[in-house]
Amino acid sequence: MAESVVRRLFAQNGKVTQRPSRLVDNTYVSDDETIPDDFADSPATAPAPVRGIVIDGRYLLGPAIASGGMGTVYRARHIRLGYAVALKLSDTVGAHLDARVLREAQLSAQLDDPGIVRVLDSGRHEGSPYIAMELLAGRDLEQLVEDRGPLPVYGACTIVHDVAQTCARMHAAGIIHRDLKPANVFLPNGGHVKVIDFGLAKSDSMPSLTRTGARMGTPSFMAPEQVEDSKNANAAADCYALGGLALYALTGQPPHPAPSMVEQLTQALVGDPPPLADLRPDAPSWLVDLVLSALHKDPAQRPTAAAFAICLEERARA
Prior knowledge:
The protein has 10 helices and 18 strands. It is of the alpha+beta class. It folds into 2 domains: 44-134, Phosphorylase Kinase, domain 1, CATH 3.30.200; 138-317, Transferase(Phosphotransferase), domain 1 (Orthogonal Bundle). A hairpin with a 2-residue loop joins β7 (59-68) and β8 (71-78).
């Protein structure tokens, strides 16, 4: 019965789509709904680049260092100026995905925020778009928790506080991330916590690339309204993900820890998150209440990112 709650979202003309999505590095995109009519070409897989080639006449490609739903990130070096970059290359070819990569570069450059990875350049190589970004040393929150287990309360609060502050500045600029998750929170070896990967982000100041009814994001961290219609997901969806990040940092579990994508999406709509108070009895009651309020099914009942950050900061001082 629970599965039918999600399956009805994939109904098209009275039929259920048999292959509704693709799931790459836990990022979910509804293939049949996210491509607007004016981007209706079918994306094809781009040839895998070879280490040692020169990208766009400018960047000597090194080893792959990360991968995600919108492409692969390589270590590279500018052949004339000598500085190292993180070069993100799209794994697929298609006008819609090209537009998303360009949008990611534009939004990241537009923000110019200490909590966001800095974009240095963008262009195309053999039909595939790329983004050159600052190369950071460190690891993401997912890797940290996998290596060390759930974090101490103060450490978890410090990381999520920094992300919440960055989100508050993003939201003030009219930008919604829509894919906040541990793998997209980077912890440099010294310096500010960074929010990365704006491949699914949207901006109030730019035309939407998402069709009404589309579903995109990471199922284990998606807000219920984002499952139903990602186009209309607003800042409250990012606030839901903030609660999910806090829960993950404290327990090692996402808000929807089911084994399958359909079950995760169902949990987002009708399930309860893992019981933080039981899993972390050392977590103060105010923190449990804050996380649960951020994970409320009703977007209107969630705190804003700014309020989330202020609460963490004020309680840390107390």
